[in-house]
Write a structure and sequence with these properties.
Two copies of one chain form a homodimer.
Chain A lengths: L5 H4 L3 E5 L8 H12 L3 E5 L5 E2 L2 E2 L13 E4 L6 H11 L3 E4 L9 H14 L5 E3 L5 E4 L19 E8 L2 H14 L3 E6 L8 H8 L7 E6 L7 H11 L5 E5 L4 H10 L7 H11 L2 E3 L2 H13 L8 E5 L2 H13 L9 H10 L10 E2 L6 H13 L5 E5 L11 H12 L4 E4 L5 H12 L4 E2 L2 H20 L2
Parallel strand pairs in A: 1-2, 1-5, 5-6, 6-7, 9-10, 9-11, 11-12, 12-13, 14-15, 14-16, 16-17, 17-18
Antiparallel strand pairs in A: 3-4, 8-10
Helix pairs in contact in A: 3-4, 6-7, 7-9, 10-16, 11-16, 12-13, 13-14, 14-15
Chain lengths: 464, 464
């Protein structure tokens, strides 16, 4: 059965209700952005114009001569119910309401929002919003985000789906991902979530083959939807990892949520235990969210919690050890046979325990040998490779050599750490990232990514 | 009285014992680096050569025709005691021993290291190292780090001093700082610290007018020097902030320290309480160390813990609130009179409590007005400004306007947050940083920086 949400991501055509030729206005930016990348027909709707930029404009969506799959609404709040009614009459399946002036402004707006739900009742029409940025789909070109490229760059195609209660934050996230080269599949700004909410989107995204990990920014669930969220998430997390960044954890934070989205952030402890119950991974910041998502989107699922650390900087190795152990991950001692083989191939003063410290006298081949050994050994489920590129004998060929050995033996998650900034470091980061190895600045962040993968692996087994 | 360590940073001349014309060798890299930037005389010392690259070379340091202030030693370990003896005989005041092969390799090396101390006893000669990278001074051009620019870029001049037990980590830190534009005054890699240790350097750096904050990477203090560290730090932190990143906190981490620097990391709790007693600020990662150091190096000392948050993204405001409250900082409600003035100047749906949310409808002037009000108000000791640059009406003139208002009213610490990546965001970050406002990617990191400043302000008062 096709999901009722599919139309938001793969519409055959899109009507823009409130389209306008006036540059800089929302109804124009959305029109321009969509025209530049969406392949299907676009229908500007506005009774004031006959044509916009040479494209036929209709007084209402009902006047469009073919069936309309999706509509984006950018008219003032008081007119929204009327145009939503038009959409229902026309049989439009997906309506994104960008306009604000609903429950976020108080009782009057809440009344108006309630009316929307009454209008779509029993109709088969679904609503995203109001008070949102809508849908960004890197694969189909649906992009209702009214922000031009110079303010919000669009990230490369990837496997992460973002669902956000805050439009501003989601926009900043896409802009950041674009700069960092982090691949995004879809982003949905759900605003007041009058109809479509996090649970609905999880149900859709879990079946979406472009998506490998679902990342959610949440301030508060709508009253009465907590049980639904937990039930759906519990089911979804068996198939795909879900990461939630919950804002409003402290007393003051909860108050700030109330004045932002009007959500009831409630007692954070209730959320935290619901997340645990549902197998959801909790992020501690927006960077932490991306750190974990990047690993979950690119790495295989680990068999367990046992990590091998390979480093050329002893200090970084110590910090990695502290971070991993604090998170409950395990650093087993390197097995004897592995040690024996390494002893003959690394410098005599290399540390062979775990971390394996190839030292500042490292040459490229030492890293290759060490990776080969830990990837082959049953003693380790995951690998953290720390590459400080300052040692004088390392060459710019190192990343290619590492990628080669990973391709040969790769069945375990591998993450990398590199701290620095000169040519060799930047080249290594770029090469590894291009080949699907997430690179982090510090071992503490890489450790969080490994933890998320180990945790998710356990979740999947527990939730069977 | 002039410190006996001054000669390491402001020598009139430098002898390089073990200098060589062979490209790529340590004794050549150091010679080339110093020749390129150090203004005083350089004396290569090597019995094998008469001249190196056209510069007169001497068989021993004793043969140099003038007094020698400082010597860098890069000869093999077994010869080091002999050349150190030459230095003492010649009256060299500062000796940096780069060579490894001392206490870090076991009993034989420890014996050799002990000999060094016996040789300098009562002589007025001080030793940094052995097994270290030595001294980097951005102001005087002393640079004994045997890493060429393409592996370790040199950061811009600044106010942060780095003291590190790990050479590899310190090198990566300088390389990273160079890329990020973080200003560094000095970096000292102290290796085995046979003579000069963290406490000695704190004593020197506290009197150094180029240094505003001392950042230390520590695995373990030498046995018997704990009391000295605490006493000195307690005295120093009255005048300048000291941040320590302690590695080896967990059981496994402590073990990793033993195989790295051979230090006794000891029970972390003992260190943690010593740091507290000494008024030292503890960092949780190398990024956290820089996050706090950047703020302490550029901002005035706050009067208290009361923070105003100004944001155009409600979600970021909520996360800032959570982070600040978790760290024990205070977000007082915006005073009535301030609210009244803001009400007339911001958009009607702006949130006027704290965070002050100027919303996505923000124009540059709203930020200016909000900053002006919180900088003038006694209700706040510090300010976190969150700038998401996606909102359509913000212009590229915003950073200049913010800097102007800060110059007018600036008596409080101000830190900024910007998450994104397109032109406007990058321009804002660059402009603010150039004008001494540290910018962080996420509010959680900015909150740590504010916490460090508030904590330091209390330390200074407590330690009076």
């Amino acid at each position: 059965m096709k999901s009722s949400l599919e139309v938001f991501f793969k519409p055959r055509n899109i009507a823009i209700i409130g389209a306008t030729p006036t540059k800089g206005k929302l109804g124009n930016v959305i029109f321009e952005v969509l025209r530049g990348k969406f392949k299907g027909n676009i229908y500007p709707i506005n009774p004031k114009y006959q044509k916009i930029d040479g494209i036929e404009c209709y007084p209402t969506v009902k006047d469009v001569p073919e069936d309309v799959d999706m509509a984006v609404i950018v008219v003032p709040a008081p007119i929204v119910p009327e145009v939503v009614k038009h959409c229902v009459d026309k049989g439009v399946k997906g309506v994104i309401i960008i306009s604000s002036g609903f429950s976020e402004i108080g009782p009057e707006g809440a009344e108006r929002e309630k009316k929307l739900i009454e209008i779509i009742k029993g109709s088969g029409t679904r609503i995203i919003g109001p008070n949102c940025l809508g849908v960004y789909d890197a694969y189909t070109g649906v992009d209702t985000w009214f922000l031009p490229e110079d303010r919000m760059a669009r990230p490369p195609k990837g496997y992460i789906a973002i669902v956000s209660q805050s439009g501003a934050l989601a926009a900043a996230m896409l802009d950041w991902a674009a700069r960092m080269g982090v691949g995004i599949a879809k982003a949905i700004s759900i605003g007041n979530k009058a109809d479509v909410d996090e649970a609905d989107l999880m149900e859709y995204l879990v079946e979406d083959s472009d998506v490998r990990v679902i990342a959610i920014y949440l301030e508060g669930l709508r009253p009465g939807t907590g049980q639904k969220f937990v039930e759906v998430a519990r089911r979804i997390t068996k198939k795909k990892p879900v990461i939630v960044l919950k804002a409003g954890k402290t007393k003051k934070g909860t108050k700030a949520v109330a004045s932002h989205t009007g959500s009831l952030a409630g007692a954070y402890q209730i959320y935290a235990s619901a997340f645990k119950q549902a197998g959801v991974i909790e992020a501690s910041s927006v960077l932490d969210l991306f750190d974990m998502a990047r690993a979950l989107a690119t790495q295989p699922i680990p068999k367990g919690r046992k990590v091998a650390v390979i480093t050329d900087g002893g200090g970084m190795g110590v910090m990695a050890t502290d971070a991993l152990e604090s998170l409950g991950l395990i650093l087993p001692e390197t097995p004897k046979d592995v040690k024996n083989r390494l002893r003959n191939k690394l410098v005599p003063f290399a540390a062979l325990g775990n971390p394996i410290d190839v030292t500042g006298s490292v040459i490229d081949e030492h890293y290759v040998v060490a990776f080969e050994e830990v990837l082959k050994s049953d003693a380790f489920d995951m690998v953290m490779g720390i590459f400080l590129m300052q040692p004088p004998l390392l060459t710019e060929k190192l990343p290619d050599k590492i990628i080669e050995v990973l391709k040969k033996y790769r069945t375990k998650p591998v993450v990398a750490v590199s701290f620095g900034g000169s040519k060799l470091t930047l080249k290594l980061i770029k090469k590894l990232e291009e080949n699907g190895i997430p690179v982090y600045e510090i071992p503490e962040r890489a450790a969080r990514a490994l933890w998320a993968m180990a945790y998710y692996s356990e979740i999947r087994e527990l939730n069977e």
